[in-house]
Amino acid sequence: MIPSSGKQPEATTGVLLVDKPEGWTSHQVVDWVRRRLGVPKAGHTGTLDPFATGLLVLCLGEATRIAELLTHADKRYVFRMRLGVETDTLDPTGRVTRIYDGPPVDEARLRQVIADMVGAQHQEVPRYAAVKVQGRRLYEWTRSGRDVEAPARLVDIYAFDVLDHTWPDVTCRVHCSKGTYVRQLAADVGRRLGCGAHVSALRRTDSGPFSVLHALPLDTLEGMRRDGEWKRHVIPLHAALSHLPALVVDDPSIRNRVRHGQVPDSWLDRYAAVVEGHPGPVRLMGPDNVLLALWWPAAPPGGRRLKVFQSPEHLT
User: Fold this and answer.
1) CA distances in angstroms from 34 to 15, 30, 42, 65, 264, listed in the order given
2) Residue 228 zone, left/alpha/beta (φ > 0; ψ -120 to 50; rest)
3) pLDDT tens string 18-63
4) Which is catalytic among the residues 19, 31, 49, 161?
5) What Cα–Cα distance (Å) separates residue 12 from each residue in 124, 233, 239, 293, 313?
6) Is 288 an annotated catalytic residue?
7) Neighbour tally for 162: CB within 10 Å
8) CB-based contact 53:95 (threshold 8 Å)
9) For residue 217, which of 228, 233, 202 has the smallest C-alpha distance?
10) What distance in Å separates the CA atoms of residue 26 and residue 37, rounded to the nearest whole number?
11) Which superfamily is assigned to 9-72+209-239 in CATH?
C-alpha cells in the first residue's frame, strides 16, 4: 500500500489497476485518469475494445517507462459467444452478415472443437482491428472498401474451457498469449462448427500477475479522488516488476553512480554469475525497496545496459 505522495501530482508513479466499464475506449479511461486524478503522464499496457470490460493496467508517471515490460504478459478472459450469428466485426457492435438456420450444435462436438484450439497457432488479425497495414489502420482499409491482406500472427492458447452452454450462447474462459484476438478465436470456433459465431460479451480478468479482483471501477476512483485515497492502490515500480530478479545496491557511492548511469563494469561483473542465463532486465534496488535502475547484463556492445529512474518511489 502506498500513501499519498504529497501535493504534487507528478510525484505519483506506479501501476494502477482499473476495471474498465463497457462503452469506454481504453484511451478514454486513460484520459479520465489524467484529468480527474491529476496525473500528467499515464498510459495503458494493452487495449480493450469499447464493448469489453475488465482489467486495464495503467502506468503512471515514470511507470510509463516500464510499460513495454508489461505489455507482453499473457492474458485471461471470460467471454460469451453467440453461436449461429456472424457479424462483420466479430462482436456485438457489428452488422449481422449471416444467420445459421440449422439444428443446435452437439455439446460434445462443441467441447471437442474448443479443446482442439489449445496450442500455438497462426491467427488472422480481424478486419476491424487497429493494427497498421501499409501505413493505415486495418479497420480504416476495411471501412473504405479496400481489400488488403490481413496479417497473421503467432499466438498461443494455453487453456480454453467451456463454463456454460445453453444454445445458442456459450460462456468460456481462455488463457492466451499477448496479441490474441478473442473475437477471432470465437469466429474460428464457429467456422469449425459450421454455424458461425461472434463474441457477445468479453471481460479481461488477468494480465500477467495482475488481476481484476484488485482493480478499481471509475466510480470508486472518483470517490477516492478528493482525499487522495486512490494513491494507496498504486503499485510501486519494484512490485510491478517483481517477476524480475533483483540486486540490492548497498554502497551509497555506487547508488549515486547508478542514478547517473555511471555504474562501473567491475561492480556489475561481480554479480554476473547471479543472473547467469537471464538476459535482463534485472532490478537494481536501493534501500526501502526503491527501484534505482534496470540492468541488462547481456546487452551487446553499444546496446542499452541501464535504464535509470530519477524519481524515487516515496514510501513514507
Assistant:
1) 13, 6, 7, 17, 39
2) left
3) 999 999 999 999 999 999 999 999 999 988 999 999 999 999 999 9
4) 49
5) 39, 11, 15, 18, 8
6) no
7) 14
8) no
9) 233
10) 16
11) Pseudouridine synthase (3.30.2350.10)
pLDDT digits (tens, 9 = 90+) for 107-142: 999 999 999 999 999 998 776 556 665 555 655 655
Instruction: Please report, for the chain, the start and end positions of each structural domain, with discontinuous segments joined by +.
Output: 9-72+209-239, 75-203, 244-308
Chain centre to alpha carbon of residue 145: 31
CA–CA separation, 155 and 198 (whole Å)? 19
Q: Are strands 210-211 and 85-87 parallel, antiparallel or unpaired?
A: unpaired
* Residue 155 contacts residue 77 (beta carbons within 8 Å): no
Total length of the chain = 316
Which one-letter amino acid corresponds to residue 270? R
Q: Which CATH architecture has domain 75-203?
A: 2-Layer Sandwich (3.30)
The number of angstroms, rounded, from the C-alpha of 243 to the middle of its chain's C-alpha atoms is 15
